[in-house]
Amino acid sequence: MELGELAKMLKDYFGKRDEVVLAFLFGSWAKGQRGIDSDIDIAIYFQPKGHSLEWEKTDFQYDSEDHIWLDIERIVGREVDLLILNRAAPTIADSALRGIPIIIKNRNLYLDFLLRITSEAIDFRQWVEAYWQYKEQRKHGTPA
Q1: pTM of the predicted model over 0.85
Q2: Residues in CB range of 106: below 8 A, 6 or more apart
Q3: Cα–Cα distance between 13 and 70 in angstroms, integer?
Q4: Which of 5, 10, 33, 76 registers the highest number of CB atoms within 10 A of its CB?
Q5: Could you count the other beta carbons within 10 Å of the beta carbon of residue 84?
Q6: Is 40 within 8 Å of 70 (Cβ atoms)?
Q7: pLDDT in tens, 37-75
Q8: Got the DSSP string for 34-47?
């Protein structure tokens, strides 16, 4: 299956799913580095229940997410890793948003989510970098 064919199948499917407002293809398929047995990484964002962004809601499962996951695997004929952006950590969500957009039904929500996630991911990466620099300094006996 070619990337264009995959993107069209996913766009057709998600276009009919009212509860999914954003969908992205990311990982090896999006980077053009897929192998024979590569799974397909897809990230989706469900329509928020309220008027504000939903993210990192780790204790919540959407009613249709298992159904969507099985539908996609059946449609594409491959194993699928489905990432729910509403509860994803900022760094993985940021990575997914840098993939190939399949569908963006709400541009304002997308931009709000992108700005929020990108900011959180940058903050986290800076914290990790500072932590590792501190560890290296301590390892070599340099004062922090």
Answers
A1: no
A2: 21, 22, 47
A3: 12
A4: 10
A5: 21
A6: no
A7: 889 999 999 998 877 777 766 677 889 999 999 999 999
A8: --TT--EEEEEEEP
- Hunting for tokens 């039904």 — which residue is that? 105
* Cα 118 to Cα 10: distance, rounded to the nearest angstrom: 25
Structure tokens at 131: 């932590």
Say which amino acid occupies 125: R
Q: What is the pLDDT of residues 66-109, one digit of tens each?
A: 999 999 999 999 999 999 999 998 888 999 999 999 999 999 99
Q: CB count, 10 Å around CB of 96?
A: 24
DSSP state, residue 25: E
Pair 104, 34: CB distance under 8 Å: no
Instruction: Tell me how far apart the alpha carbons of residues 42 and 119 are, in angstroms, rounded to a whole number.
Output: 22
